[in-house]
Amino acid sequence: MCKPPIAFVLRLLAVLVLPLSFGRAVAQERGSNPRMGDSATLLTQEEAVRAALAGNRQLSQAVLEEKTAGARYRETEAIFLPQVAVSYSAMSTNNPLNAFGFKLQESSITAADFDPSHLNHPGGTPNFLTSLDVRQPIFNADLLYQRKSAEAAIEVYRFRTQRTREGLEFQVRQAYMGLQLAEAAVRVLESSLSIADSFHRFISDRVTQGMLSRADESNAAVRVAAIRSRLAEARSGVRNASDMLALLMGQPAGQRYRVPEELRPSGIPESEDVSAGVAGGMAFSGGRDSVPTGRADLAAMQKAIEAADKGIESTRMSSLPRLNAFGSWQYNDSRMLGFGAHAYLAGVQLSWDIFKGNSVRNKVATQRLVRDKMVSELAGQREEADLQLRRALRQQDDARYAMKESSTAIEAAKESLRILRDRYEQGMTGNTDVLLAQDQLETQQLALVRAVYAYNTAVAYIRFLTVAGTGVKD
Length: 474
Fold this sequence. Notes:
The structure is a single chain. This protein has 11 helices and 6 strands. By secondary structure, the protein is of the alpha+beta class. α6 packs antiparallel against α7 (214-249). The longest helix has 68 residues, at 141-208. It is elongated.
């Protein structure tokens, strides 16, 4: 009976020892759950949203614009309230007419004041005038429509603020899901690195003992280096996502965050498996198939058109008569701080600008063109919103399909890895096949988390596109 070749013996020893080492690495990987460092701050999605709504600069600016519009509206209260002014004047003149008038206003005329030489050549005549003037608007049609236009402008900025808040919330949720994606990628790659590194150490030991070739070690080393490179990129992705969240929340950059919940498809209970949820045909609950006309940004544009209509009416009404009351109370004296003589003047004024050189008609024509442009822009916004919604719905369907296919591929990759591992134990395949199977499993796991991220992002975007403005009927 012939002796077995030495190569066969070495190969048999490698096959017997490798499964034990490989199995320990898998057990260690399963027993450990690598997470982000303890220095990272735990942050839930709702906490991130609340922090962003409280500290985001863009939202603060939108709120200030809304308050500014309210202040402009309160300025129009002047069309109802009286205007009161008080003045005090100290004067001196030697003009004959003014000097005689001062004495009349002071009720100090005497017979000597009618002397022709005194009338024609008065000396310096002082006068101290205290005046109280009141203006009371009664009817100004153009100002009434200006007030209505300013009132509509408040609604414009209120809806803009609401849309800014909705957009900020979507951005925060998207950035948070990006952090979930980055952490999920880190976990997948750390798991792959743990197994690949253990496998590489085992092969290195066998090469040192002369039981395996250098080519086997090179293949394993390339695999480890590739995983380390991708892991470094994934960890940088975690820091980038943390910086984005910090920016949206108004916090200084550099703070690392970590998420307490795993990345899962939106709308699937935690008790269900991802693949089961995907296979079950997850539909967007509470969604819509069309963009509501009362969405905040569309409602803001509609209110802007209404404000433009009120502005046009205000310009047209400026050609109507105006009715206002006025009154003046005066105290005249030849002494400073004197209130010797008093008089009043009160009345009602009706004024009518009959012709202004066609300025009103031309201004109305210009305002109508601006208003027509806004109507066209609103129609364009609605068409674009419908297009974005259809695209988001297709992205949701694509992501749902990708999750289903990735889940199926993961199961197939696991089975393939199991079969190849068994064949390796029997000496029927090489380590290259095992490494390729592991790489295929890692690829499909990363594809699944990316598909889940794409699905959740599409769901959040659909909600952002279909949320209706507060207080607006759709």
